[in-house]
Design goal:
single chain; Alpha-Beta Plaits; 3 domains; four-stranded antiparallel sheet; 9 helices; 10 strands; DNA binding; TACO1_YebC-like_2nd/3rd_dom; DNA-binding
């Protein structure tokens, strides 16, 4: 289990789909509203909004919810969200990047700092760990979208830089500024992606042992449960055997 593709594992492990789903819808709505406010409220004219809407559809978010989130930006009756990033270390020296959309920096910073300190981690200064990651585009498709060879060929043709496939999903990595173009090309050949967003890809990964894995998962869970936190990235690898024991 790698640090950038763990959401499904955690959802399955906790057995708390409903809670995660409602939290996920709230985060997706926030991203749609922010994207619509920053550009045109039309997904065809606004690449970031198009990706946000596609991500929401992939999670079966109702059309009414999506439209409401867009209208919220157009109506101007929304909080002023800003994008903030936090960087720190988790158990076992794992590097973690937290991306948030918040209308209250103090609240979010306090919550993130508390999550780190209560779960064997330390919040660092800006830039503390991001130098060990590459900023790239990440497009994910479910395993059922096609076999590894077919996805690889489609991704290559669309201009992607790297592809990795496992039994759950296919991850297509692109250059940061090519994300929208590659996502659009893949949509034409494979259909809408499960998600497409800017990501932090670790240059090297850290194998986490059983002793640290439980605390690390608790840290990641706590961060992801925060309404302001959009995404948590890490450079960790947890073996299937250890994940099985954490069950």
């Amino acid at each position: 289990m790698a640090g950038h593709s763990k959401f499904k594992n955690i959802m399955h492990r906790k057995g708390a789909q409903d809670k995660k789903r409602s939290s996920m819808f709230s985060k997706l709505s926030r991203e749609i509203t922010v994207a619509a406010k920053m550009g045109m409220p039309d997904p065809d004219m606004n690449p970031r909004l198009r990706l946000a809407v596609n991500a929401a559809k992939a999670q079966s978010m109702p059309k009414d919810n999506i439209q409401r989130a867009i209208d919220k930006a157009a109506g101007g009756d929304m909080e002023n969200y800003e994008e903030v990033r936090y960087e720190g270390y988790g158990p076992g020296g794992v590097a973690i990047i937290v991306e948030a959309l918040t209308d209250n920096r103090n609240r979010t910073a306090t919550n993130v700092r508390t999550a780190f300190s209560k779960n064997g981690g330390n919040l660092g200064a800006s830039g503390a760990v991001s130098h060990g990651f590459d900023r790239m585009g990440l497009i994910t498709y479910p395993a059922g979208a096609g076999d590894a060879d077919a996805i690889f060929e489609a991704a290559l043709e669309a201009g992607a830089e790297d592809v990795s496939s496992n039994e759950d999903e296919h991850e297509v990595w692109t250059a940061m500024d090519a994300l929208h173009e590659v996502a659009k090309a893949l949509e034409a050949s494979l259909g809408p992606a499960e998600s497409a967003k800017l990501a932090w890809k670790p240059q090297t990964t850290v194998e986490v042992d059983e002793g640290n894995a439980a605390t690390l998962m608790k840290l990641v869970d706590t961060l992801e449960d925060d309404d302001d936190v959009q995404t948590v990235w890490g450079n960790y690898e947890v073996s299937d055997a250890v994940m099985e024991k954490l069950g």
